[in-house]
Amino acid sequence: MRILCMILDQLPIEVEIQRNPQLAKKPLVLLRPCNQRVLIAAKSLHDIRINPGESRRSVEQRYPNAFFLTATESLYQKKHTQLKNILGRFCTDIESNALGEFFISTTMLSRIFKSEADLCAKVVQQIVAETQLPVTVAIAGNKFTAYCASLQANPTCTIPMGKEADFLASLPLTALINPPSELLRRLNIFGIKTLGEFAQLPRGSVIRQFGPELAHFHDMACGNDNRILKPFTYPPTIILSQTLTNPLSDIQPTQNILHKLTTQLSQRLEQSGYHANALTLSITDESEHSKHINTSIKPPTSTDIRLQRISSNLLSQLKNTYPIIKIELKAYPLHEWHKNTYQIKLFEQHKNRYNKHALQKTIGSLKQRFGEHAIQFANNVGPPKPKGLRVHCDPAGIPSKLQIRKQTYMVKHIHQHWRVQSQWWHNPIERDYYQVNISDGRLITLFCDHKETWFLDRAVH
């Protein structure tokens, strides 16, 4: 099988440069509007190692000359979808795991185009004609080689069958897909810097040194990648909004509109098979001033009721925004849980007589390297102990507000209340449990003992 990889490296940066060409020479950093944290930074800042999620203040301290710009994520999603639709004219089965990254099979296309170089040129020509964005395209015998080649392409590249290892040989080890830092550290100790040097090591030696679970990195360095194409599309951020013809100054109509948006959001999530792991609410007033607030969702969800409760809490925290002319709700869908994860085996199945020896050997090597306290045995590890809380109750004894880590939160809703009485014959335990929703959107469980002392039940969380 031959695989085509099309990449628009740093799609958000390229889109912003397209909107304002003067940004091309600036050390650009895009910030999420909801929390002013880094979405992506220009390549010129890679040496400083500015990573997504860092705060603006952290970047300013390390690089005062950075040029900050608020990200327009909805625009980036539209460009990603536009690229996917154009590529879909060549092949409908597209794998896309990130913004601006696409894979397709060229098996059927080889009958239509004169050569692979002609196919690459036609794809680039079509993309540039409709979007004016600088995509790169490469074709190789597997996904990893095609991906690396597309990053090196100018703007196209084809790797002949059987020449994958030769092309990869000069690339640094960091070209591997999510390599463990320990693998890079130990290879660096051995003086191995490139994929070609890594590929020269005998596979058996690599397995003995790093374990069979990391052998696929050696396979990739040798130009072998057995991963098949999976038609999968990077889940775009779901953005729902409503612009109001008549500004709203009352909280109840605003809540009603927000509930409609969350219902639509829940339906979109369930149709796509994803859960939201973060939610952002944006409110725009008559002066066109916008306020943003966001929260993570743990555990992620797609249920309408829970999304409504979280969005209502976010709305209640946005103050002095009336009258409102626009409401926007943005959800960040959760990727498939198994993406880019690997299960490490201590020993193979069906070898029970060797299990104890293999486990003892593994534990011994971990202790030798990381110290005696690096290992905790399951039968010695219990649930976390309850944490004391300051709780204020109403006259009926029902919790109304509480303090966690010196922060005060209001109790918005009580979902459950139950009483536990046990060990009456020895050491009596009497507790009143409350499962409550607090003002930051979290659902927590707290209890009060017979001494009227309150605790956070951390075993539940």
Rg is 27 Å
Q: In whole angstroms, how far apart are the ends?
A: 47 Å
* Total of DSSP H or I helical runs spanning 4+ residues: 13
Flag low-confidence runs. 336-351
- The best one-word shape is globular
Decide which structural class fits the backbone.
alpha+beta
What is the share of helical residues? 25-40%
CATH architecture of the largest domain: 3-Layer(aba) Sandwich
The CATH class assignment of the largest domain is Alpha Beta
* Number of individual domains: 5
Mean pLDDT over the residues: 84
Strand order of the largest sheet: 13-14-15-16-17-18
What does the model show?
The chain is of the alpha+beta class. The protein has five domains: 3-136, MutS, DNA mismatch repair protein, domain I, CATH 3.40.1170.60; 164-221, 5' to 3' exonuclease, C-terminal subdomain (DNA polymerase, domain 1, Orthogonal Bundle); 238-333, Dna Ligase, domain 1 (2-Layer Sandwich); 352-381, no CATH class; 387-456, no CATH class. The protein contains 13 helices and 18 strands. It has helices spanning 11-19, 56-62, 73-87, 116-131, 143-152, 164-168, 181-189, 195-199, 203-210, 215-221, 251-272, 304-317, 352-370; strands at residues 3-7, 28-31, 38-41, 67-70, 95-98, 101-105, 136-140, 156-158, 238-248, 276-285, 290-301, 324-333, 387-393, 399-404, 407-422, 429-438, 443-449, 454-456. The chain has a six-stranded antiparallel beta barrel. The chain has a five-stranded mixed sheet with strand order 5-6-1-7-8, sandwiched between helices. Strand 2 and strand 3 (38-41) form a beta hairpin. Helix 3 (73-87) packs antiparallel against helix 4 (116-131). The two termini are 47 Å apart.
